[in-house]
Amino acid sequence: MSSEVISREVKRRRTFAIISHPDAGKSTMTEALALHAHMISEAGAVHGKGSRRATVSDWMEMEKARGISVTSTALQFNYTPEASTSDVPNVINLVDTPGHSDFSEDTYRVLTAVDAAVMLIDAAKGLEPQTLKLFQVCRHRGIPVITVINKWDRPGQTPLELIDEISERIGLIPTPLYVPVGIAGDYRGLLDRRTGEYIHFERTAGGAKIAPEILLNADEAAQREGDAWTAAQEESELLSELGQDHDQEMFLAGQTSPMIFTSAMLNFGVRQLLDALVEFAPPPRSRETVDGTEREVTDAFSAVVFKVQAGMDTSHRDRLAYMRIVSGEFERGMVVTHAQTGKPFATKYAQAVFGRDRSTVDNAFPGDVVGLVNAMALAPGDTLFIDPKVQYPPIPSFAPEHFSALRVTTADKYKQFRKAVDQMDAEGVVQVLRNDIRGDASPVMAAVGPMQFEVVTARMKAEFKVDTIVEPLGYSIARRTDEASAPELNRQRGVEVFTRSDGAILALFSDKWRLQYIEKEHPDLLLEPLVAAA
Ligand code: G4P
């Protein structure tokens, strides 16, 4: 494949994730995007009549029981922006951050596979904890963020309150592309700040269809909306006076964030979001390799595995690894090399994955996400390539906040148990910590989200036929320490020292007060924060 073709494919691609707190409307927005891309003809499968539970990818019984999705999937669709003059559509990849109240390692890892993020905020609630955590990861990784204020059809804060909250709390300056006409709870349309025009939205029955838009000039808008239009114009002017207009360089540098007001439920503002993604979000770029060089998108094929998941299909045990393509063209059937082992990997069964429906992928380009079946040897962070050889830096481990001891309940399964623990460790399902006191029979699992422990026990049983019990430990904070500090730390109440499988020495603390006390009493001890998620 010529590099011009790859270059053209790359240019039209946008790969992003939605970062949000549970209930902000991520599923509803995903569906609204699919509706606008004409992937579905009617919305409602997700947010209507409780049928959502059947459409999410539920790969384990546990998920079904909870009615949530723990795993990431990738959704790809074509989209042609309203203003486009090209007859070639854009290709949008939406990488799903695993759903819901469980905040896990996978939620973070997805962000290593995207080029931009949409920060979805509930207009009434403002910034919420999980959004903040994920935003910090984006900032750390230099991922530009588009801000969406959702549920504008419901009472909430004013635009200026939300803008202030975001700039004050996280130092990100919102630059609204549009100002809503009508307060939260009375969403009539948007003032396009660049053209000064008014986009009025019409409701459709049950919000099932794309909301028809009526475009009016300022005079017509003033006549139609009266004070609501004047208020929007004043807000827009104020923002311009404050310098809060979109600036592409500052956006890409992570300093500003284009902002859009939406109602995912009514499909208001959704087209504007898609258009902004195409216009402003960066296409896939070159990536830095372990030796500090860059692999260009037009170079030979390479990809990074960012997520491995097992047991999707209960009828046959399989393991699916998701890779994000970094360079070159991927063709199904290609034999690639696994950089970590140097072994060949046949890609006969490559799949694009959306929910339960698996469709076969024949070729893919940088920015695309492809699922590889039977990927027993692949772990998150691994590199696959076609010569010349390349290896990308590993995905860093995340600062865990939950710690549990794991024990096997049947003594004769001990060997299997060890094998299973090593497997979970290698896959990055949990981090595995050990110390002499607990011994090998009771390793400690550390995770970002407590549901990872359930994933471990369920997989231990399904794949290794090992019954285990999980005992939550009373620790909530980990710090990196060293051999010299370990004995003193072990003498302290509410502290325990472990060695992680990568050799790092970690001290666990019951709570932050305990940690603060020890830091004060023993300033000579090494206690380094773990990177939240680099
Ligand atoms: P999540 O994936 O981020 O957790 O959120 P989800 O889309 O499931 O939405 C959470 C709730 O918020 C849902 O209501 C959904 O209908 C509602 N919602 C999402 N976007 C909007 C919006 O723009 N406006 C309004 N008014 N509501 C919105 P629910 O009652 O929990 O579920 P359901 O009965 O609608 O399925």
Automatic annotation (TrEMBL):
Sites where the protein binds GTP: D96, T97, P98, G99, H100
InterPro entries per UniProt: EF-G-like_DII (IPR053905), EFG_III/V (IPR035647), G_TR_CS (IPR031157), P-loop_NTPase (IPR027417), PrfC (IPR004548), RF3_C (IPR032090), RF3_dom_3_sf (IPR038467), RF3_GTP-bd (IPR041732)
HAMAP family: Rel_fac_3
Similarity remark: Belongs to the TRAFAC class translation factor GTPase superfamily. Classic translation factor GTPase family. PrfC subfamily.
Annotated function: Increases the formation of ribosomal termination complexes and stimulates activities of RF-1 and RF-2. It binds guanine nucleotides and has strong preference for UGA stop codons. It may interact directly with the ribosome. The stimulation of RF-1 and RF-2 is significantly reduced by GTP and GDP, but not by GMP.
Keyword Iron assigned: no
Keyword line: Cytoplasm, GTP-binding, Nucleotide-binding, Protein biosynthesis
Localization per Swiss-Prot or TrEMBL: Cytoplasm
Lineage top rank: taxon: Bacteria
Name under which the protein is recorded: Peptide chain release factor 3
Matches recorded under PROSITE patterns: G_TR_1, G_TR_2
